[in-house]
Amino acid sequence: MACRxxxxxxxxxxxIRLAEGGIGLDQGMGRSAYLCPSQVCLDxxxxxxxxxxxxxxxxxxxxxxxxxxxxxxxxxxxSEAR
Length: 82
Prior knowledge:
The chain is an alpha+beta fold.
């Protein structure tokens, strides 16, 4: 969504505006936006409010923080694997 790079959906994070209300990550039915799991794309999405535009609703800071935690935990796992 932020970098506009074409990737397989399994490599991307899915952010969903749930049909029953609220925002979810990875599972659920509703309007979706896909985001690369990289700091650059996450920063760009925050700066330009791309998630809000794509989902057509407000996205809570807690959702962005959850994505940032995923990013840092993924980096920790990669460093442990080496």
